[in-house]
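Researcher: Here's a chain I'd like modeled. Treat it as a single chain, no partners, no ligands.
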Amino acid sequence: MQEEGQVVWFNFKMMDSKGTLIESSMDEPISIISGKNHIFKPVENAVVKMSEGDTKRIPVRSNEAFGDYNEDLVYQIPTSKFENVPKVGDSFEMEIEDGTVINMNMVDEKNGVCILDGNHTLAGVDLLFEIEVVKRRLANAQEIKTGKVSTK
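Model: Modeled as a single isolated chain. Structure tokens:
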């Protein structure tokens, strides 16, 4: 079975390593084009080898998903530095020391200091996917060029 240039539609459940459901597409299959980095490599590597109707459980380590948790992306910023002090749970973009703009999450506020976390909320979390392949076909030239599945 050809693995590159495949369009694969599949249902998935994404859970943490304890089995807690994080996300599911069971109501509507998603599609990928193999080789276009649409999904985590271990999942792509598995689905491109599966046939229609096949199901599989695929473990994905944190470093192959949203990355390992990085303490260097946790910042303590005095509330006085903000024009509008964020609330716990707020997300926004912030430029860090090297000029990179990253998404930040306000995770806590203590004694006039905002604790901001630039890690993805699932950083450091090992995942488990349950996959069911619904349909597959060769990608056409336009799909391979654009990286987007046509609706046809």
